[in-house]
């Protein structure tokens, strides 16, 4: 896994992490996961029961492949934790470390799976002993250190004209349009920097995202980063949307709400697709474009069909320009049969034809970038009462909305990938602008 940082890239000030009591060079604009990856630590965690090697897939905090113990707190998503001087990072659920875990022998001893409830059942005592051992070997970390546990956070009630949930292309456009229309607007995004898929796009995406954010700030939009919508509660004061951030809770009662929650990175179905080194294409793009990290030497970009074809081609070109040896797997013509490699991916098995019935070949690689339509993140709008429908070509259950983002629920709008834009940032931004203007108009009517 020969990742390397690009020279002359603005990544902030240098800091030092303490990883298993060893110093690791990092930068304060990197996440812990990115810093570890750029420093050569590919395997970040182990699976719950079989101790299979794991690393991040999405780099957005959704895949749980980088859960680590950070500053004494277990099960933190390393891709969401910022680097700072002296931050302590430890592996969990592994002995002696995630990269070399002797407990991985469980996977070798039980290749067909293991149900510990059926082991040693001839003796009640032996079965209890086996169950206790399995519980000790499994799990997700240990309780936090007393000084790291923390106390209750603060709560703040907010009542904007328009609340935009999600800071990707659709959310940025919606918030800008609402503010230009005269609405008091708040934008909340779960990431540390707004931009969504733009931060992973080789064609000027990060720069365009930051320019849009500056326009929003000048327009008076309040931006809340690292803030996640965790639930809608219709029984509280006419409806409250709860948004959680580090050490705080926002209780929102907006006049109108725009859901631009985007989508989740999806994998493609092939053998061993959970092998570390198999990543979402946009995670690879984020490493390269936002963080200035060249993710490997031999990269397979898997895509070519559907709306992600253009992004797959742009990513392949950017990786090649950064010095990678790139192999493009066009999934409209070929089928990926499986990944090879024990701890890290070493090759892909590919066959001609969409059903994999043709000639087979083996493609050596140290990284696989999987381009697939994102699955709409429709949980919050569904809880708010919005109707969804299954759209396989759009990645999953998309929110049903009209041309201006109206969902059928009064004061609730939706736009972008959550409505099935399928990962197209231009389409998402256009829909966001329409929804933002409509939400601002609806808020103005409700204020009269």
Account of the protein in words:
The chain is of the alpha/beta class and 448 residues long. The protein has three domains: 4-145, 2Fe-2S iron-sulphur cluster binding domain, sarcosine oxidase, alpha subunit, N-terminal domain (Ubiquitin-like (UB roll)); 154-264 and 374-447, FAD/NAD(P)-binding domain, CATH 3.50.50.60; 278-370, FAD/NAD(P)-binding domain (3-Layer(bba) Sandwich). Helix content is 23%, strand content 28%. The chain has nine helices and 31 strands. A hairpin with a 6-residue loop joins strand 4 and strand 5 (53-54). Helix 4 runs parallel beside helix 5 (205-218). The protein starts with a strand and ends with a helix. The model has no long low-confidence stretch (mean pLDDT 92).
Indicate the low-confidence ranges by residue numbers.
none
Q: What is the gyration radius calculated from CA atoms? A: 23 Å
User: Total number of β-strand segments?
Assistant: 31
Helical segment tally?
Answer: 9
Shape from CA axes? globular
Q: How many angstroms does the end-to-end distance come to?
A: 60 Å
Helix proportion range: 10-25%
The CATH C-level name of the largest domain is Alpha Beta
Q: Classify the beta-strand content into a percent band.
A: 25-35%
- What structural category do the secondary elements indicate? alpha/beta
Average pLDDT works out at 92
In the sheet with the most strands, the strands line up as 3-2-8-6-7
CATH superfamily of the largest domain: FAD/NAD(P)-binding domain
How many domains, in number, for the residues?
A: 3
The biggest sheet amounts to: 5 strands, mixed
Write the CATH architecture name of the largest domain: 3-Layer(bba) Sandwich
CATH topology of the largest domain: FAD/NAD(P)-binding domain
């Amino acid at each position: 896994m020969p990742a390397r940082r690009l020279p002359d890239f603005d990544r902030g000030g240098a800091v030092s992490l303490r990883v298993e009591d060893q110093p690791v060079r990092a930068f304060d604009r990197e996440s812990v996961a990115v810093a570890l990856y750029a420093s050569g630590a590919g395997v970040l965690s182990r699976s719950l029961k079989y101790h299979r090697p794991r690393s991040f897939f999405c780099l957005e905090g959704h895949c749980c492949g980088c859960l680590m113990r950070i500053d004494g707190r277990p099960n933190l998503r390393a891709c969401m934790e910022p680097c700072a001087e002296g931050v302590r990072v430890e592996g969990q659920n592994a002995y002696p470390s995630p990269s070399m875990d002797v407990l991985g022998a469980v996977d070798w001893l039980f290749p067909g799976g293991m149900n510990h409830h059926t082991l040693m059942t001839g003796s009640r005592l032996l079965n209890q002993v086996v169950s206790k051992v399995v519980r000790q070997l499994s799990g997700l970390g240990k309780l936090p250190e007393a000084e790291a546990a923390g106390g209750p956070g603060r709560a703040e009630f907010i009542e904007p004209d328009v609340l935009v949930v999600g800071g990707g292309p659709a959310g940025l456009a919606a918030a800008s349009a609402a503010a230009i229309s005269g609405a008091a607007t708040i934008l909340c995004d779960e990431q540390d920097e707004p931009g969504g898929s733009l931060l992973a796009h080789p064609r000027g995406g990060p720069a365009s995202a930051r320019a849009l954010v500056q326009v929003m700030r000048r327009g008076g939009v309040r931006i809340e980063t690292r803030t996640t919508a965790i639930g809608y509660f219709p029984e509280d004061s006419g409806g409250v949307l709860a948004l959680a951030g580090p050490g705080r809770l926002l209780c929102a009662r907006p006049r109108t709400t725009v859901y631009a929650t985007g989508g989740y990175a999806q994998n493609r179905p092939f053998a061993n697709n959970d092998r570390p080194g198999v990543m979402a294409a946009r995670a690879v793009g984020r490493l390269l474009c936002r963080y200035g990290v060249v993710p490997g030497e031999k990269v397979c970009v898997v895509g070519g069909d559907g709306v992600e074809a253009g992004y797959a081609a742009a990513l392949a070109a950017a990786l090649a320009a950064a010095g990678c040896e790139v192999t493009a797997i066009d999934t409209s013509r070929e089928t990926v049969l499986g990944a090879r490699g024990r701890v890290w991916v070493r090759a892909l098995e590919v066959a001609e034809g969409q059903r994999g019935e043709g000639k087979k070949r083996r493609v050596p690689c140290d990284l696989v970038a999987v381009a697939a339509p994102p699955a709409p993140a429709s949980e919050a709008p569904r809880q708010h009462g919005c109707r969804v429908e299954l759209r396989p070509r759009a990645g999953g259950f998309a929110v049903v909305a009209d041309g201006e983002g109206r969902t059928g629920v009064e004061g609730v709008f939706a736009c972008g990938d959550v409505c099935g834009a399928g990962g197209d940032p231009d389409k998402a931004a256009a829909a966001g602008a329409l929804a933002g203007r409509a939400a601002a108009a609806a808020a103005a009517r409700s204020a009269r």
